Amino acid sequence: MIDLPLWAWGVLALAAVTIGLAKTAIPGGGILPVALFASVLPARTSTAALLLLLIVGDMFALIAYRRHAHWPSLLRLAPAVLIGLLAGFAFLAIGDDAVVRRAIGVILLAMIAVTLWRRHRQARTGAPAVANGMIAASGYGALAGFTTMVANAAGPVMSMYFLAMRTPVQVFLGTSAWFFAIVNVFKVPFLAGIGLFDGPVLLMDAALVPLVVVGAFAGLRLARRMKQQVFDRIVIGLTIVGAVYLLF
Hints:
With 248 residues, the chain is an all-alpha fold. It has helices at residues 6-24, 31-40, 43-65, 71-94, 97-125, 134-151, 155-164, 169-193, 199-222, 228-247. Helices cover 81% and strands 0% of the residues. Helix 1 (6-24) runs parallel beside helix 3 (43-65), helix 1 packs across helix 9 (199-222) and helix 4 packs across helix 6 (134-151). InterPro entries: TM_pro_TauE-like, TSUP.
């Protein structure tokens, strides 16, 4: 297993619980585990290790929301997402840990900035603009594909797209659940092909899986009680700290 100090295991444990919560209660909240994993592990290793835990969380999201997906939206996104995934894989394959680490930091800060801008615009106008058409789908899809391959950080991108489409809550959750379940499984052979799923990574994930399960069950119980605004502020604040740490 990867040799880490106790405090680093604590960070990974917090990230694992947050994965479960994000998958079942807080769409887009998975940006925090990205920052936490990349802050204590080599950048490429963090991407691979986090992916397997995200797939575990996807299983719980599908159990809860699988019947509410809007498949036309997923099919509209598919071509652009595939292009983004391939571009992200090429970047991940040729970039060293230092480059990928800084790229993750930049991606996280960019996602936070765009998310805050979207919320500010929505507060001023009362409702987000509707993003219909293939142009919007292509832009969001390509960015989602690239960010999810490089940093597992497509949550805010997809949240922006579904909100811009004025997607009802249950359809939002169901469509997001299927999107990430399909995309994350699709990414596995690519990362395996460049040797990122070695024995230590698999053992570490095996130790963290129970915490993802705990977080998922907690998220299912708290989904209707948790104050979204408070949780969002915590996620954004900690993610900014993690992203700045990755950059400097």
